[in-house]
Amino acid sequence: MDPLLSCAFSKQNELIAFLRELVECESPSHDAAAVARCMDLFASRIEDIAKVKRVGAHLLCEFRIPKPRRKEGQILCLGHADTVYDVGTLGSTMPFRMEGGRIRGPGVFDMKGGLAIVVFAARCLIELGVPVPRRVVLEVVSDEEIGSHTSRELTEKMARESHAVIVAEPAAGVDGKAKTARK
Known about the structure:
The termini are far apart. Helix 1 (about 5-10) packs across helix 5 (about 110-130) and helix 2 runs antiparallel to helix 5 (about 110-130). The strands form two sheets. Strands 1-2-6-3-7 form a five-stranded mixed β-sheet, sandwiched between helices. Strands 4-5 form a two-stranded antiparallel sheet. Helices cover about 35% and strands about 20% of the residues. The longest helix is centred in the middle third of the chain and has 18 residues, at about 110-130. The protein has about 180 residues and is of the alpha/beta class.
C-alpha cells in the first residue's frame, strides 16, 4: 500500500475524533464568540505541526512540512470555521453521529470536514518526511458563510502569493469527485 494512504488509514480514528471536536464546537457565522471558540480550538490542536498566526478573526497556519530546496510562492489551502447552523442544532436536530459508514453533523460535509482532512494530510506528510517544494499554508476564515466581508482582502492577498490554491471542501457525492466549481 502507498505509504501516504497507509498513514491516512492509520490516523482515521484520530481524524474522526478531531472532526467531532470541531463539529461539537458550534460556530454559527453571526455569533463571533462561538466562531472565536472554534478558531481557538482549531489553533490549539494544530500548534504541534504548524506555526499559527491570527489575522483579525482569521488564522494563517504554516505547516512544518519537510523542506527541500524551496521554490518561490506557496500552496494555499483555504477553509472556514463558521457554519450556517445556530447554536443548539447539535442538541436539537443534527447531533454528531456515525451510522452506516457515514458521519453526520453541522459542518461535517462542509469545511469542518475539509479542515480535518487538510490537517491530517499535513500530519502524514510530516510524519513520513515527505518534502513539499513550496510552503503549505492553511487560511481559516471566520466569515465565509456570510459573504467573507472581513476575510476577502486577506484571501485575495494570500491567493496572489500562491502557486496554487486548494479549497478544502470535501469531495462531492458517493463517487468522491473533487469539487472544481461552485454556483
